[in-house]
């Protein structure tokens, strides 16, 4: 077992860091303050991602055919670590890179691939993910948005909620029902300017315009918008989520925020206290545990193994690390978390509040760990 990075990995990380140093503007922290789903950061991504693509750093792990360079899985994670630690200048485009693109490569028609993959690989595509509904979040299979077949079209009616990026997205990766049960779910790739779609921002403490309600009223799309077959939707999202469970390496961001908190405490000559030091150590351990559990998932993926329970464990650990770090900061540097305090700590704190619910609640991951890892009966 070798935990060290190779010289090639180190060189790749340096290349990514150099790129960030040269391309992030002086006022980047004030842009990043609003979170990856904000209008500010989404707009920024539309100039940043094309440059990243030109440097060969947007989709290096994608096949050459689709603008990538067939680079190893580990490089994709190194890239993600540096991007998230910098505040995620790719905005919502990280989703394209991590899972929407790979899902289209696997399930898309030639026409869908030719239409959607090149703009993603060149850093010019904003998508949103239309999964959750009122009454269908953790229990996603309860979704009620319906797509009724009408000749060569589908007519979609229903409502989505908590949809990140919807305010600026061109396309929605939408789940809708064509029949009953899990087998009755299909995926549609819906242009957001289709008549009948209404987007309303939900005011929230995170970001500027980060989350939305999206209403579909008699939205007519051709059958060519369906991804895969009717009834294949559940398999498609299972594949998508297996890609995304550890897609946001927040342990790296948490770990660097913790370093910054410790540096601030030292500057204030407040790091000598034994309680402060032991709490910092606990937070550091949580970050490193999360990192190791995520690396296990990356290792499985790099070896081509199917996703197992490691991803569920890793996701819970990442959430815990987030919470430990922000709790540490709130306890010992409270002034940084109010008013004009410390923008990066505040941004981290706001995301830490929702990290255990966005992208699937941590409790649901614990249920899965209990069933799949500990072999406990369902509902025990
Ligand atoms: C910032 C943010 C961004 C988001 N972006 C998107 C997006 O872009 N697209 C999208 O489709 N969705 C998005 N979501 C929605 C997210 O996926 C859901 O919030 C999540 O799946 C939980 O669903 P829910 O909100 O309906 O909560 P519920 O499912 O009602 O859960 C409420 C609470 O009950 C707990 N709970 C529920 N069932 C169980 C159970 N069986 N056992 C134990 N505990 C349980 C949950 O853990 C949670 O704590 C986003 C959410 C947030 C906060």
Strand order of the largest sheet: 1-4-5-8
How many angstroms does the end-to-end distance come to?
36 Å
Low-confidence segments, given as residue ranges, are none
CATH class of the largest domain: Mainly Alpha
Q: What is the overall number of helices? A: 12
Q: Mean of the pLDDT scores?
A: 93
Ligand types: flavin-adenine dinucleotide
Topology:
Layout: H1 7-23, H2 28-32, H3 39-54, H4 73-85, H5 93-107, H6 110-121, E1 127-130, E2 146-150, E3 153-161, E4 171-177, E5 185-191, E6 197-202, E7 211-222, E8 226-227, H7 233-244, H8 250-267, H9 274-302, H10 310-332, H11 343-355, H12 362-373
Parallel strand pairs: 1-4
Antiparallel strand pairs: 2-3, 3-7, 4-5, 5-8, 6-7
Helix pairs in contact: 1-4, 4-8, 5-6, 5-7, 8-9, 8-10, 9-10, 10-11, 10-12
Bound molecules: flavin-adenine dinucleotide (FAD).
């Amino acid at each position: 077992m070798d935990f060290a990075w190779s010289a090639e990995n180190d060189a790749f990380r340096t290349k990514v860091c150099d790129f960030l140093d040269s391309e992030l503007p002086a006022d980047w922290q004030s842009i990043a303050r609003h979170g990856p789903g904000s209008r500010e950061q989404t707009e920024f991504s539309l100039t940043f991602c094309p440059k990243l693509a030109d440097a060969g750093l947007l989709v290096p792990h994608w096949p050459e055919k689709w603008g990538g360079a067939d680079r190893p899985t580990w490089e994709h994670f190194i890239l993600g670590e540096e991007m998230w630690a910098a505040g995620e200048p790719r905005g919502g485009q990280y989703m394209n890179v991590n899972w929407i693109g790979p899902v289209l490569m696997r399930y898309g028609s030639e026409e869908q691939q030719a239409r959607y993959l090149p703009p993603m690989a060149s850093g010019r595509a904003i998508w949103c993910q239309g999964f959750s509904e009122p009454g269908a979040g953790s229990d996603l299979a309860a979704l009620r948005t319906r797509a009724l077949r009408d000749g060569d079209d589908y007519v979609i009616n229903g409502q989505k909620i908590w949809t990140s990026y919807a305010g600026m997205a061109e396309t929605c990766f939408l789940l809708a029902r064509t029949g009953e049960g899990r087998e009755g779910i299909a995926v549609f790739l819906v242009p957001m300017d289709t008549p009948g779609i209404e987007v309303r921002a939900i005011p929230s403490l995170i970001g500027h315009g980060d989350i939305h309600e999206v209403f579909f009223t008699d939205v007519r799309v051709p059958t060519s918008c369906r991804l895969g077959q009717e009834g294949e939707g559940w398999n498609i999202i299972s594949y998508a989520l297996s890609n995304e469970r550890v897609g946001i390496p927040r342990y790296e961001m948490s770990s660097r925020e913790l370093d910054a908190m410790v540096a601030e405490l030292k500057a204030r000559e407040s790091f000598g206290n034994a309680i402060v030091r032991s709490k910092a150590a606990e937070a550091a351990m949580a970050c490193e545990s999360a990192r190791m559990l995520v690396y296990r998932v990356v290792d499985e993926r790099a070896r081509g193994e199917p996703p197992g329970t490691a991803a569920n464990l890793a996701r819970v650990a990442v959430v815990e690390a987030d919470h430990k770090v922000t709790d540490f900061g709130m306890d010992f540097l409270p002034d940084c978390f109010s008013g004009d305090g410390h923008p990066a700590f505040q941004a981290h704190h706001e995301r830490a509040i929702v990290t255990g619910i966005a992208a699937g609640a941590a409790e649901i991951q614990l249920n899965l760990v209990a069933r799949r890892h500990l072999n406990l009966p369902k509902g025990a």
